[in-house]
Amino acid sequence: MTEQPTAVEATATTEPAETAEQVAAREQQATREAADSIMTAFGGVRGMIDITLPSLVFIVTFNLTHNVADAAWGALGLSAVLVVLRLLRRESLQHAFSGVFGVAIGAWISMKTGKAENFYLPGLLWNVGYCVALAISALVRWPLIGLSLGPVTGEMFTWRTQNPGRLAAYTKATWAWVVIMGLKPLILFPLYFTHNVNLLGWLKVALGIPPLVLAMYVTWRILLTAPPPIKAELPQDEDEERS
Questions:
Q1: For the chain, how are helix, strand and coil distributed in percent, rounded to 5?
Q2: Distance in angstroms (rounded) separating the CA atoms of residues 160 and 171
Q3: pTM given for the model
Q4: Spatial distance between the Cα atoms of 108 and 82, rounded to a whole number of angstroms
């Protein structure tokens, strides 16, 4: 007497396999979702606003009062308000706290020296250090863009060990960030040494969001042509497979 297949076996045998077109569509969708995660990884629109507004408040207040301390406290106060708003909305504080830290150092230096242009010095030095870190990370094949996006896409470090196409894409994107973000200190540092606070301040505000948006767009375009991410297996996932 022949055995009848169980319901599970019947389902497994009758379920159609994916066609090549379906596999390609699924991979393309995974690639697009990974590319779309860029905005989330870098704080989104809210994060960019949080970074830009304190500099705007500083230069506006300085023009109105011609007092370095008033301008510095105004920028620092706004940064604190932005952190409180994030707390009330239960949003991530990562980008808000980094903004407050930079504003606090700039405010302290400008008030200590009495020179308004020193409010922007920590940000300029951070831009230089960030570009150097980006370049070094690309050279040693641990590109910072991959390190930033890996946890967001769920691939963690699989892009480095199992997915050479994404490693190449992350390296290319990191070099793009070096070039784009490196333009800011190249433009602003010469102005810092001229002590032209107004031109320095307004250009700092003007160059706050556009380069960041351009760098994210270029990264998005690069990742659209990269292989889809390979999801990392977390310890709990392995335990579930064994059970």
A1: 80, 0, 20
A2: 10
A3: 0.76
A4: 19
